[in-house]
Design a protein that fits this description.
By secondary structure, this protein is α+β, with helices and mostly antiparallel strands. It is built from 6 helices and 4 strands, in the order H-H-H-H-E-E-H-H-E-E. Helices cover 48% and strands 15% of the residues. Strand 3 and strand 4 form a beta hairpin.
C-alpha cells in the first residue's frame, strides 16, 4: 500500500461519516430542484459547477488540516493526490488518473463508481441524456479547491454512464498558476 493510499485510508477511518444514502438522495433532490427551476440544462450544469466551486474553496482547508500534505511539485502529483487522497477521503472512491496530454497539462479521472449517481434516473424529456451532467458539482469542487492552492484549472465531464456512455470521465486541464492572493472570482 502506497503512502498516499494509507494516508487516505487512515483519514477515512478517522472521519465522522454521514449516511451515504441520505447524502445521495439529498444531492439528487438538489439537482431535481434545479431542473425544475431552470428550463435549460446548461444553466443547471452551471449552477451545479458554481455550488461545487464554493464547496471546493472551503473543503481544501479541511483537506489540508486532515492530511498535512504540502505543496505538489507538478500536475501529475496533484492528480495523484486528488485521486488517491481527496476522492478517497470525501467520497470513498479512487478514480483512475489517465489520458494525460502530451504536454502533461491535462488528464482524466475515470470514476468506476460515482456515488452521486446511485439511484439516479435522468429525466426522460429527450434532452437530459445529451445536456445534463448530473454530477457536475464535482467539476466545481475540483476547480475551487485547486484555485485556493493557486492552481487554475478547467474541469468538465466528457462522458457519464448515466448518459449511456461506457465510463464516467472527468477531464481536468491546467490553465495557469495564480499569483498569491484571492482566487479567481467565479461569479
Amino acid at each position: 500500500m502506497t503512502t498516499r493510499t494509507k494516508l487516505a485510508e487512515d483519514t477515512w477511518k478517522r472521519m465522522d461519516k454521514i449516511n451515504a444514502e441520505l447524502f445521495i438522495l439529498t444531492y439528487g433532490s438538489i439537482v431535481a430542484q434545479l431542473c425544475n427551476e431552470f428550463e435549460e440544462y446548461a444553466e443547471v450544469n452551471k449552477q451545479l459547477d458554481r455550488m461545487g466551486y464554493g464547496i471546493g474553496t472551503r473543503l481544501v482547508e479541511d483537506f489540508l488540516a486532515r492530511t498535512n500534505i504540502g505543496r505538489c511539485r507538478d500536475l501529475r502529483e496533484t492528480a495523484d493526490i486528488l485521486s488517491k487522497v481527496g476522492f478517497k477521503i470525501y467520497l470513498n472512491i479512487t478514480p483512475a488518473v489517465t489520458n494525460w496530454s502530451a504536454d502533461s497539462r491535462a488528464f482524466s479521472l475515470i470514476l468506476d463508481d460515482n456515488p452521486l449517481a446511485d439511484f439516479v434516473e435522468l429525466p426522460e424529456d429527450g434532452r437530459a441524456q445529451d445536456e445534463l451532467w448530473f454530477s457536475n458539482v464535482l467539476c466545481g469542487v475540483i476547480r475551487g479547491a485547486l484555485e485556493m492552492l493557486q492552481v487554475q484549472v478547467e474541469a468538465q465531464f466528457v462522458s457519464d454512464v448515466l448518459r449511456g456512455d461506457p465510463a464516467t470521465e472527468l477531464r481536468v486541464i491546467f490553465v495557469k498558476m495564480i499569483d498569491e492572493g484571492q482566487p479567481i472570482n467565479d461569479e
